[in-house]
Amino acid sequence: MTPTPTPTPTPTPTPAARNSWAEFRAAEPALADTVRTRFGQYRHHVLATLRKDGSPRVTGLEVDFRFGELWLGMMPYSRKAQDLRRDPRFAVQANPGPDAEMADGDVRVSGRAVEVTDPDVLARFVAEVKPPEPFHLFRAEIAEVVLTGLEGEELVVRVWRPGVPVRTIRRGPDNIARTDP
């Protein structure tokens, strides 16, 4: 008779780090400054959320950087707020600008949006930003930051994820992708 193997216990998942804007900036200050500057060029950007059926929803919104956080504010009971309350995954793309040039690159931040309900945090935000009220406020927990741009004839993609150094991928006119060490 063969012994019954003892089942391996399932490890308890550890909570993911918060990954605030301040933490991203501390890890990659030059990239964070570039990304923030890029978002600062225009007021409106594009937010992607997930509908109840799992299909994507893309809408416009304004982003705000303050108190070491990336904030997403929206009208009360808007579809995008309802999406984020149900499924906090998001991606926000910086406005590409008035033409196809995108001289300062293409920027995207993705992660989880956590709704802020703390009255003190909301009051502090309202005191500084003076948004139309009522509103929903979400704090971004950053999972990935991507900056895509041109350097000479190469397409250069820089990708940051928490706990990992920036990865740079270059694609030249020969259409062969190379990853920097």
Question: How is this structure best described in words?
Answer:
The protein is of the alpha+beta class and 181 residues long. 21% of the residues lie in helices and 40% in strands. The chain contains four helices and ten strands. The chain has helices at 21-27, 29-40, 79-86, 119-129; strands spanning 45-50, 56-61, 63-66, 69-74, 89-93, 106-115, 136-151, 154-161, 164-171, 177-179. Strands 1, 2, 3, 4, 5, 6, 7, 8, 9 and 10 form a ten-stranded antiparallel beta sheet that branches. A hairpin with a 2-residue loop joins strand 7 (136-151) and strand 8 (154-161). The protein is globular, with a radius of gyration of 20 Å. It starts with 20 loop residues before the first helix and ends with a strand. Mean pLDDT is 88; it is low at 2-16.
